[in-house]
Amino acid sequence: MGILDTDSFMHGASGKIGGIVLYTVDGKTYFRQHVPQHADARTEKQLLQRQRLITAQTLFQSVKNCLLYDVFSLAAVQQHRRSGYHLFLKLNTNACGKDYTIDYSLLTFSQGQLQLPFNFRLSGSNDRQAEFTWSNCQEQTTARGSDRLQVAAIFPDEPFRVKILPGIDAVRKDGYATVPLEKRPGGEVHLYCFFARSDLKSFSDNRYFCINR
Amino acid sequence: MGIFKSPLFSKLRKSVGNITMYELDGVQVVRAKTWKNDRQSPAQLTQRARMKAVKKLTHSLADAIHTGFPANNHSVSINRFVSQNIGLMNPDENGQTVYDISLLQLSSGELLPPAVTVVFDREKRNLIFTQERQPLHPLSPDNDRVYGIVWAKEEEESQVFPLRQRCEPGTTPVQLPTDYQNCSLEVFAFTVSANGKKTSRTIWLGSIKPTQ
How distant, in Å, are the alpha carbons of B46, B132, B163, B165, B166 from that of B171? Predict the structure, then answer.
């Protein structure tokens, strides 16, 4: 695969010339050899990689319908990625394994420039709620007192669906939060906590917690 | 059968002597002419009866097969249907072929089958498909479309009804065509991915006799 210079007379071209295919992605024009027939070797490694990719894509299906989509779209712009979808796959494909398994502790649902508070801990939990505490750090541009806590959760009955929990009013200056949990079948609940600026234009990285109900 | 690539003979087709050349799915194929083989061994007669029975089904289930075995070419869909179902056909000594209709496959693929049931509403004379919500899974995406297939076996006709998406629980009433009102119906269901390329296996929902 080659890349055409921007001052080339063929920059921006797309199509096929003989055995050479030209296409443009994100303003760059590429050329490569045309492959007339796709050879699907179906090796063990290939099949594993396909399973991992499908698992990550399934997780992204639920991300598309909530605040996390904005988180990834914004992070993609900041990191010069092609889209939030591509950034999501880059961050989370490695957490997916054989036979559609997931290591939930490796998943990332938020990235950004806001700061996570010090001593961010899960202080207690029961069937109905989880309690978090953190140190109230000094006000600064990357950590305002009005930054709101957001919690993304994966419940055991829907292990491929991530959801932003509603009804959380805690902000950074509170230093603690009580997060109501939905009534679902017992098992491990995976929580990903992060902070969002009040205008939802800036986010922090997430911190992972696991509760066994 | 041989496959060749030649700039000079890229559009060559038809026969020269015993050699036949043609283009198949974008590749150039050469093969020898076949001789008529009409052996009457019991195994061959059984295989012919099987093939005859399964090919007969393809006429009445054409739309369902095209939906359940997606391919660019309809003959590829038919071939996949035949390969899936020819093993079900059991010809007896009288030449009659019997098969278990609940095992008939109008689709095949890695997707999970739908969670759907069907009942016949005798007052309104329609079928009611009831779908349950299925959890999100790599093999059961939310946006898969569930299809119900109603096959009037005696009339040798069938209809494909698109139902709800996999993530939408609820009921879908389906008005039966008037010529289906007096015949026995077999009802099947399967799912097709949003891009129409992946399918699940078929589940048989039951036999319905509107006259009873």
Answer: 43, 9, 9, 11, 12
Give the torsion sign (CA, A10, A14, A20, A21): positive
The closest CB to that of B138, out of A36, A58, A158, belongs to: A58
Instruction: Yes or no: say if A64 and B142 are a contact pair by the CB < 8 Å rule.
Output: no
Range of the domain at A86: 44-212
Regarding whether B178 and B121 lie in a shared domain, the answer is: yes
Closest by alpha carbon to A109, among A207, A211, A177, A202?
A207
Q: pLDDT tens across B164-202, in order?
A: 999 999 999 999 888 887 788 999 999 999 999 999 999
Quick: pLDDT tens for B29-43.
Answer: 999 988 877 888 888
Q: A58, A66, A98: which to substitute to probe chain B, counting the most B Cβ within 10 Å?
A: A58
CA distance A62 to chain B (A): 9
Structure tokens at B159: 């209809």
Which ranges of chain A have pLDDT less than 70?
137
pLDDT digits (tens, 9 = 90+) for B71-130: 988 999 999 999 999 999 998 877 788 999 999 999 999 999 999 999 998 888 889 999
Alpha helices, H only, chain B: 42-60, 62-68, 74-85
For chain B, how many structural domains are there in total? Answer: 3
Same domain, residue pair B128 and B200: yes
Q: Provide the domain limits for residue B182.
A: 116-208
CB contact under 8 Å between B137 and A100, yes or no, is yes
Contacts of A160 in chain B (CB under 8 A): 135-138
State whether residue B136 sits within 8 Å of chain A by CB.
Answer: yes
- Clarify whether residues A155 and A191 are in a common domain: yes
**Phi, psi at B42, each rounded to 5°:** -60, -40
What are the b/e assignments for A141-177, b being 16+ CB within 10 Å? Answer: eebbeebbbbbbbbbeebbbbbbbbeebebbbeeeeb
